[in-house]
Amino acid sequence: MRIGIIGTGVAGSVLAEMLAGTPGVTLRAFDRLAAGEEAESGTGLNVGPNAMKALRLHLPARHAAVRAASLPWARWSIEMADGERLFDLDLRDLAEEPGIRLRWSALYAALRAPIARLTRHSTTLEALEEDAQGRLVPVLRGPGRHGMGLFRPGGFDLLVAGDGRYSRLRELALGASPSRLHGVAMSRLLLPQIPDTAPIDDYGQWFHGNARLLAYRLPGGAAYIAGSVPLDTPEAEISAEMRSAAYQHALYTPNGAISPAMAWLRDAVVANAHRQHWARLQESPLERVALGGRVLLLGDAAHAMVPTLGQGATQAIEDGVLAGAVLRRGGDAHAVARLRDARVDWVRQFSLDASDTLLPRAHPGAAPARAGTLAKAGPDFLARLRRLYTDVPGPEAVTAPPHAQTAFPAAKRTG
Ligand SMILES: Cc1cc2nc3c(=O)[nH]c(=O)nc-3n(C[C@H](O)[C@H](O)[C@H](O)COP(=O)(O)OP(=O)(O)OC[C@H]3O[C@@H](n4cnc5c(N)ncnc54)[C@H](O)[C@@H]3O)c2cc1C
After folding, report:
1. Do 408 and 24 touch, CB atoms closer than 8 A?
2. Which segments of 175-271 does DSSP mark as H helices, in order?
3. Are 34 and 122 spatial neighbours (Cβ–Cβ below 8 Å)?
4. E-strand spans in 74-118?
5. What CA–CA distance (Å, rounded) separates 59 from 295?
6. Cα(74)–Cα(202) distance, rounded to whole angstroms?
7. Contact predicate 160/15, CB 8 Å
8. Fewest CB within 10 A of the end CB: N or C in the chain?
9. How many helices and strands, by DSSP H and E, does the chain display?
10. pTM value?
11. CA of 34 relative to ligand 1 center, distance in Å
């Protein structure tokens, strides 16, 4: 059985480690980045306790490595701009362990380390062909003896799309899929060094109307600040005015009192307005299996989701771990879909529901920041969070399909 992984980001790296050394499996991985190159290194991530549980149960060495590269995400607080605290959660009251907060580059480095030997770097998927046996052949562009060129690494029984939100493999297998926009602009900023006296620490959020700042400290004295700004319509673009320091100063300044944390964050955002990165809140429809089961989609390639609950990379880790557990036991892409899709749909809906306080007022699901936040402290939301953070099966719960052997039968067709 030849398995090819396109993209060793979060999901692809975790899957590769899960499958490495599986009897009967020949594994190859490809990524367009050069070895050691980390995309998006200027961003912070908070990864949920559910991803940590998946790693702890299935890949304990990786659990230890990402813990070592991160700070614990143990608390989640929400305040209004004047400092009124509406929500203050100790994640350990609901989860089996804290989540983590770390630099995106640190997560990639920790996940990619064990699969470096398996990965062919600087290779970009461009096209897809079939061999005479009906197996998929990726056509990749990468370095060869005569400079950059196209090469075909042979046929694969299963090709895995781990190539992220703008997945080329998804596009080749299923055609272009439209993103769903919700009318929210998101800014992000990494500050490499903040003073010890800065009034932020673990994961906090501060609202002025439906505009919100989110911030937390990162390892090494750095901090991450993300802004959220309602747009006029779902499809509206992010204007140059909105990105300006003056606009953001007004956006995050209440009429009355302002808390020390909100004032510090606003001033940091205003001073660094030219360094912010901007994107719009969006998601894409869930697609798990394509081309008759010969393509399996994982992570953002399968289900790019809104970032509100910090579940993008978190679900990509769950995907990689659990797809690996299924494939290792002889399951196929459809078996991965059976294990994962109901959970992923539920997480996506929960993330969207939790975005109510960020949406423009005219949006049907929008809630005022204060009322929407108070509802999050109620039993229904907390019960959903508990399920989010704990509902992760261990190895014993991932059963082999009927008639399957403990691993892939020796491949009849080798490439
Ligand atoms: C601003 C921002 C903030 C976020 N914050 C959080 C957060 O706090 N918590 C959280 O859990 N999630 C967060 N996310 C989401 C998270 O980053 C993604 O959900 C996660 O990275 C998805 O993992 P993945 O493995 O599917 O894809 P990626 O991590 O994007 O990896 C894709 C890989 O495929 C490679 N690749 C792409 N195209 C090709 C090609 N054609 N050929 C070969 N290789 C290719 C890339 O180089 C990359 O290595 C955030 C996202 C953004 C944009």
Report:
1. yes
2. 240-243, 245-251, 260-271
3. yes
4. 75-80, 85-90, 99-103
5. 24
6. 7
7. yes
8. C
9. 13, 19
10. 0.95
11. 16
What stretches of 48-97 show up as alpha helix (H) in DSSP? 49-58, 60-68
Q: Is pLDDT of 172 > 90?
A: yes
Using an 8 Å Cβ cutoff, are 101 and 94 in contact? no
CA distances from 238 to 110, 253, 283, 314 (A): 34, 20, 17, 27
Q: Which residue has the tokens 């809906």?
A: 349
Indicate the domain borders of the chain. Answer: 2-179+283-397
pLDDT, one tens digit per residue, over 264-299 is 999 999 999 999 999 999 999 999 999 999 999 999
Domain 2-179+283-397 annotated CATH 3.50.50.60: yes
Q: CA angle 41-224-76, nearest 5°?
A: 130
10 Å CB burial of residue 292 (0-12, 13-18, 19+) is: exposed
Q: Is the CB of 316 under 6 A from ligand 1?
A: yes
190 lines ligand 1 (CB under 6 A): no
End-to-end CA distance of the chain: 9
Cβ(39) – ligand 1 distance below 6 Å: yes
Whose tokens are 């990619």? That residue is 112
- Which amino acid, one-letter code, is at 109? A
* CA 44 to ligand 1 centroid distance, Å: 12
- Determine the average pLDDT of the residues in 245-252: 96
Residue 33 in tokens: 């980045």
Task: Report CA(197)–ligand 1 centroid distance (Å).
Answer: 32
Tell me, in angstroms, the distance from the centre of ligand 1 to residue 43's CA. Answer: 12
Unique residue bearing structure tokens 């910090």: 310
Amino acid present at 411? A
What Cα–Cα distance (Å) separates residue 351 from each residue in 147, 277, 390, 404?
45, 22, 16, 36
At residue 373, what is the residue type? T
Query: Do 216 and 224 form a contact (C-beta atoms < 8 A)?
Result: yes
Length of the chain equals 415
Q: What share of the chain is helix, strand, coil (3-state, %, to 5)?
A: 35, 25, 35
